Amino acid sequence: MFLYNNRFGGILADDMGLGKTIQTLAFLQRVKYTKEKENKRPFLLVAPTSLLLNWIQEIALFTPNITVYLHSGNKRVKGLESLFPADLIITSYGLLRNDISLFEQMDFEIIVLDESQNIKNTTAKTTKYINKLRAASRLALTGTPIENTIRDLWSQMNFLNQGLLGSLKQFEEKYAKPIEKNDDHEKAKELQKIIKPFLLRRTKEEVAKDLPAITEKVISCPMTEEQEKYYEEVKSEYRNNLVNMVEQKGIEKSRFSILQGLSKLRQIANHPYLTDDAYAHSSGKHNVLIEKITTAISDGHKVLVFSQFVSYLDLLERDLKTEVPYFRLTGSTSKENRARYVQEFQVAENPCVFLISLKAGGVGLNLTAADYVFIVDPWWNPAAEAQARDRSHRIGQQNKVFSYKFISRNTIEEKIMQLQKKKQGFSKDLIVTENNILSNLDISELQTLIA
């Protein structure tokens, strides 16, 4: 309210699971009633498509007096007159981009961006369009304000308080390069002082002191003989090709090929079948994971299984189908089915498994019925792993949570974990989050990954 009354914007960057949604609704309801006698302007909330129905449900539960128009679907309105009776207009980032000619005509009281890291790319059309919108006040919600690089923070702050951090070029020279390239902790502290009044972040340790403990463990899985042979062959091929490409073109122009090569090695570490459907042998990690899932189910637990690769969830589904009751959520799951599967999983009396892709299920899910979380593959951004764990370890959880990360021994996965530890320093001086280790990869680190 202080920021709103003084026409500043801010980031609510509380840890995942601490109720950013209900805090935002309480804020909007307070403003609605303080402005009731004035010529009201509507609020606008922009969220990822997968979270739209979740917002509708939370509003119905906690603030039913806020009238809502959901701008979504093929039958959404094309004119302003249909929007004005609502206190709050809710839409997705994609639809806002598509219908910008409608939204840019409007004056909003407050614009809220949920999962505001969606505007981290300063050159993207969505970011440019959102910055054009008119509002008296702006609010960003995200548990990971720095997802890839410190520039993510600049983009969000520029939306909230334009000019606070200077131009992007000035910001890069003064803060981003010294902090990211030179590990300059003094510059990080200087930047932290500037953003502190506009960023509220509380951790679970501070807020949910009565939250059950979470036990985290890394399970190192030896590859099978056939898997190891296949992995080494592919690694040797990529090592020569990628290093030569970087030397000729530079790391920036080689980034897509690097990502492709590293992604293939990560898939093989899960199961070689993901890259070669003629592969007829087993995978060490896959065998261990199946065993852990079936044991947890037989012991009466509910389990979340996260993987970045939908193709691996396909494989897991194939091998679990006859033995274990399961739900599945990926990017192709409809909004209606997403909400239904979550509800059914939460109330199911019998043990079951929820197979979830990182992109579709890393945020916006409350799955406190689960007390086991299996992370199949380590992700470049460790904050994404934390988000996955916090689908279960959040307010409402009554049981101790066990989180297991599965790593294939002597593979790129072990190297990823080493680089994660190396790269965690600077951002903790800013807002206690980790950065994506791919964002500033140099040639020596690339050689380490494929050594």
Summed up:
The protein is α/β, with parallel strands linked by helices and 451 residues long. The protein has helices spanning 2-5, 20-34, 52-62, 93-98, 100-103, 125-132, 151-160, 168-182, 185-195, 204-207, 225-249, 255-270, 284-298, 310-320, 335-347, 358-361, 382-389, 412-422, 425-428, 443-449, and strands at 10-12, 43-47, 68-71, 88-92, 107-114, 134-141, 199-200, 214-221, 303-307, 326-329, 353-357, 372-375, 401-408.
Secondary structure elements and pairings:
Blueprint: H1 2-5, E1 10-12, H2 20-34, E2 43-47, H3 52-62, E3 68-71, E4 88-92, H4 93-98, H5 100-103, E5 107-114, H6 125-132, E6 134-141, H7 151-160, H8 168-182, H9 185-195, E7 199-200, H10 204-207, E8 214-221, H11 225-249, H12 255-270, H13 284-298, E9 303-307, H14 310-320, E10 326-329, H15 335-347, E11 353-357, H16 358-361, E12 372-375, H17 382-389, E13 401-408, H18 412-422, H19 425-428, H20 443-449
Parallel strand pairs: 1-6, 1-7, 2-4, 2-5, 3-4, 5-6, 8-13, 9-11, 9-12, 10-11, 12-13
